Amino acid sequence: MTSPTSVRTSVSSSLAKIRQSDNSIQAFEEVFADDAVARAELLDGGDPASGTEPLRGMTLGVKDIFELSGRSPGNGNRTVFGMLSRDMPEDDAALIRILRGAGAVITGMTRSTELCWYQPTLTRNPHDLNCTPGGSSSGSAAAVAADMVTAAIGSQTNGSVVRPASYCGLFAYKAGYDRLDLTGMTRISDSFDHTGFFARDAATVTRLAEVAGDLQVPQQSSSGYRLGVVDTQDLVDVDDEVVETFIAYVGQLREAGHEVEPVRLPEVLAPETFDAYYGVLAPELYQLHRSLLAPDLIDKLGPKTVEILQRGRDTTATQQREAEKAVAELRTRVDGYFDRFDALILPAATSPAPRTLTHTGSPALSTLSSMAGVPITVVPAGLGRSGLPVGIQIWGRLGADETVLALLVALPSAYVAPQ
Q1: Whose CA is closest to 370, among 161, 80, 68?
Q2: Is 291 one of the annotated active-site residues of the chain?
């Protein structure tokens, strides 16, 4: 916890790092320097005896899909969303309001891909500026990895927290479905939207989750948990480098005394999983954002955004119902794994960060879990042989967010800062 008299110092340091680094990384859509300093002075000027806010002085980046008082989100395309007729928010999004109330200081809005989809933003990966940081929470992950803020807020509809955490070598938490209040966040899919946090250490992620979700993370040893390690037979289309790192990580678990058992998870990369996901996601996204296909807006959108909107438009009601049934069946199958295990362990992404800025990499290892709504944490497992970070994800049963957060702290990790 930042001491009551050091908030201005913490905020000034964050703003200095943004000025120093963000021209090359492009993590921020907008920086609130004056507001952040004013907030710091307000916190520093309070009664020292009452300085017990759990997040006092923590600098936060916020993905630009959340409402702030007097500021509508840009959603990765401020030109288009600025053209829509919207009332200016009178209050912060629910999650932002909770975190500010706990003493956090918002230093700026971080860049998102367009409408949280696959049209990339300008952001670069601090580990290699020629690599994507992942998406859609590109700016949030990059800002934390570059040490511009203590932590950042992201969102996930497919792999938008888990994948950037892996690519940028961070600790992260993707809340279970409906565990955190999404009021005031731009919605992409009522069925699959989640939010979460990035940080450079597990304790910060856990503290944010406890405050945001009113959680109590147990301080017990991880030795009491039953850990299912996904069999590499099911990791088809996953890079050899990632599989090697994953196998080495499982070895670390065993060496540390954790009881692990291999488990087959054939659904994780099965075609039926992706068919079900997109069969629900596309029409839900279209139903929420059909106005974007208006003639005066469509040519201002990226082709990947237009493609998913049109796919949703063209999905029939019968096709959507069939996909919803398949999603329900897959959710039941995923839940069944937790009759045997407290958590499932698998790689967080199919590859290290691709050396490209034209796409944000594959979210394939997150599709099943986002569809199931299960809580997830991500631990960095160090660098692969390419010299880029590789992450490990921990799935828990729906409703068991405290379990994956406890494991985030207890299991081995290897954070490596960008050089």
Answers
A1: 161
A2: no
Say whether 174 is catalytic.
no
List of domains in the chain: 7-213 (3.90.1300.10)
**Which pLDDT score is estimated for 1?**
47
Q: Which of 160, 189, 366, 369 is catalytic?
A: 160
Higher per-residue confidence, 84 vs 379: 379
Measured CA to CA in angstroms, residue 214 lies from 99, 167, 210, 376, 378 at distances of 11, 29, 5, 17, 20
Kindly give, in sequence order, each residue whose CB lies less than 8 Å from that of residue 413, ignoring residues fewer than 6 positions away: 171, 202, 379, 380, 381
Tell me 88's DSSP state.
P
| Pairing mode of beta strands 171-174, 194-199 | antiparallel
Query: Does the active-site annotation cover 14?
Result: no
The catalytic position among 21, 63, 137, 413 is: 63
User: Given this model, what pLDDT does residue 221 score?
Assistant: 67
Is the pLDDT at 59 greater than 90? The verdict is yes
Which has the closest alpha carbon to 110: 135, 85, 131, 90?
A: 135
Predicted local confidence at residue 259, as pLDDT: 87
Buried b (16+ CB within 10 A) or exposed e, 244-282: ebbeebbebbeeeebebeebebebbbbeebeebbbbbbb
Distance of CA 154 to the CA centre of its chain: 4
Are 418 and 145 in contact by the 8 Å Cβ rule? The answer is yes
Going by pLDDT thresholds of 50, 70 and 90, the confidence category of residue 288 is very high
Active-site hit among 72, 112, 136, 370 = 136
Q: What is the residue type of 33?
A: A
